[in-house]
Amino acid sequence: MRVRDRDDRGVVQSVVLFLGVSVLSGALAAGLAIPFAGLAGYTTEKTSETLEDLPQELKTDPLAVKSRILAADGSLIANLYEQNRVPVKLAQINPIMRRAIVAIEDDRFYEHGALDAKGTLRALVRNQSEGSVQQGGSSITQQYVKLSLIEKARTEEEVKAATAETYQRKIAELRYAVAVEKEFSKDEILEKYLNLANFGDGAYGVEAAARHYFSTTAAKLTLAQAATLAGLVKNPSGYDPTNSAKRAKDRRDVVLRRMQQLNIITAKQANDAIRTPVIDKNKIQKVPNGCANSRYPFYCEYVVSKLLENPAFGKDKKDAEHYIKTAGITVKTSLDPKVQAAAQASINAHTKPTDSAIGAITIVEPGTGLIKAMVQSKPYGKTAYNYNVEKSYPGGYGGFQNGSTMKAFTIAAAIQKGFPLNHRINSPKSIDLSNQKWPTCSGFTQAGKYTPSNSTAANGDLTMIDAARASTNTYFLQLSKQVGLCSVANVAASLGMYDAQTQQPLEQVISMTLGVGLVTPLMLSNAYAAFAARGKYCTPLAVTTVSSLAGKAIKTPGISCKQALSPQVADGVNRVLHDVMEPGGTGAKLKFGSSDLAGKTGTIQANKAVWFAGYSNRLASAAVVADASPPYENLIGQRLNGKRISDASGSGTAGPLWETAMRNALKGMPETHFVAPSDKTVRGDVKDIPFVTGMAPGDAINKIQQAGFTAQIAPGMVDSEEAVGTVAWTGPRRKDGAPEGSMITLFISNGSKGKPATPPPPPTTVQPPKPPQIPQCPPWHPKYPKCGGR
């Protein structure tokens, strides 16, 4: 027989002998941890076999330690924990605390093995003589085993099994205690016990308890404080000094007298400690738990949702949540308190929590995707919704239609296809697009009766820049048809745009460029950030690093970027949207500072939501004001900042939120400017459009198709001097050219401006010839768009 087996059998036999003696003596189980009555039907031999069948080693889970979420500057956002615990080494615990816990819980701890037979019998005798429980019978090692088994339990059934008053469990605990005593020294066991024990009021472990009750550390505990904590472990809730100071003091004084009885302290020391108050309520430190107690609750919840997506934290959401709250990890985030404060100040200046309309702002960093700020007008507790994020995240509201902010993606698609920035389209106040077929990625789409109109006064023969400055609907509807809805959809998707409710791609409908689907401030600000980063799109990022309790890095998704648009295309978009904020543009009143800014307004149908999205090279932001309570109604008449809204617009309603937030967020940052678009981007990659003016439509279509374009006939007729039924002009105009493969629209003349039958006589004044040194205008060429014909 091996020595270890022989030793184990000796321990087992000693235990069984002790149990048998206890039963025969008729001692009652009250006050003793082992229910002897259950052993009456068991022989010594059978009990010995039961013990020997138990595992030889106690397998414990790591201590549950609180985790922290930090801002980018290291300041605390939130604590996350199931148990508030701060593990410490035994050397970091004041010796008086060690002596106090040993004195009251197991004064012969350093003298006996796993079971203190003498102490247990003494406890039985005293408890019987006193008629109540005065002393416990479990050793500190046994208590540690029990606490470990409870800590390991994950389900209600496992907790019941770990605390069941059965002899099988008691014997199992004792066997585990034997194993623990063999594996660890007494000091190691005491250290584990003091870190594991529940000290009441949410404090686990002696360090957390010292901080919580006394605003001190375990190393600096006084005698009175140590005695208070030592008394707590027997009944953490019953002796909690924050609930019952008298009961806590009485229990503390019992500990002090026991320490005096054991000659650990003198009578004077005991009396002096007894005279001190048990607790100073001014020194109680609460450790807020969870995002609800955070300074930034919505941002915090978004961070937690991203952590739960990380497979490194568990095989499923339940395991991951347990890990996050017990592993003592430190989570560093991208939140910038300065930028967050700027955004919050804007919300405070322009909204009130009691408004019927809501306001929300997200700010991200171009080139990284780092989410710097996330704020909203409805505070946590007044609503559970986070109005900045998608519905796929807990509490995510799921967005609003984005209105004309969608035009930026049409601009990008047009520039990507080679359309020049001065691309002209005749843009009337209203246009009839009823029953027209528009190309999509999968075929065609069409609307029924559809006669959209402009919300601004800018109409007529406009360039892309003109139309963006005035947000001219009829221009961008026609441009999106020329470019193709598939191209617009692909650009938007490459910049992270999708439906925030369904997580499906944005629908390719005729009105796509005027707003489609439901998007969030986070999605929109991050998409616009790609323009600022010269086409580099980065996945939105809130969690930057995660480290273990030991300081080791844990794998987590980091900055992830791709070149979604060429730098030249992005430069062109920046040029167009920059003019939106120049005098005469819809965003002109929002311009500030000396850095280049670009942006776009957005208003959805019936004014149920209004937007402003804009950026510099350093920060990009999207602000929305919307009705977020069904049935959704027009913002006009609703309350914002305590006042009734008389006119809802992207520039006048959402714009001020954006401007105040960005002005303060960018304060102190170096001046930045956009890269000027190349000559090729400005002029476009165009080829000649054949001259078809005055031709029959069929012949004109053939000629245009032979030149590498597609063609269609515009509905109705236009006033023109060309013969009735012939081509009056094309869109794009012949003088501007068009990218190869573009859709060329033929406008048919009604002949209303036809030439008179007899031509007028030539003028009598003969113009002198131009001096030879002045060159004549060359034939039309794409590089000289002001020369040539239409």
What report would you give on this structure?
Residues 1-18, 20-44, 132-136 and 764-784 have low confidence and may be disordered. The protein contains 24 helices and 23 strands. With 790 residues, the protein is an alpha+beta fold. Among the domains are: 84-283, Biosynthetic peptidoglycan transglycosylase-like (Penicillin binding protein transpeptidase fold); 686-790, Trypsin Inhibitor V, Chain A, CATH 3.30.10. Helix 1 (3-24) crosses helix 2, helix 3 (95-105) crosses helix 11 (245-261) and helix 15 (337-350) runs antiparallel to helix 22. The strands form eight sheets. It has a five-stranded mixed beta sheet with strand order 2-1-5-13-14. It has a five-stranded antiparallel beta sheet with strand order 7-6-18-17-16. Strands 21-23-22 form a three-stranded mixed beta sheet, with helices on both faces. 48% of the residues are buried. Strand 9 and strand 10 (443-446) form a beta hairpin. The protein is 36% helix and 12% strand. The radius of gyration is 39 Å and the shape is elongated. GO terms for molecular function: penicillin binding; peptidoglycan glycosyltransferase activity; serine-type D-Ala-D-Ala carboxypeptidase activity. Keywords: Carboxypeptidase, Cell shape, Cell wall biogenesis/degradation, Glycosyltransferase, Hydrolase, Multifunctional enzyme, Peptidoglycan synthesis, Protease, Transferase. Residues 757-782 have a biased composition (Pro residues).
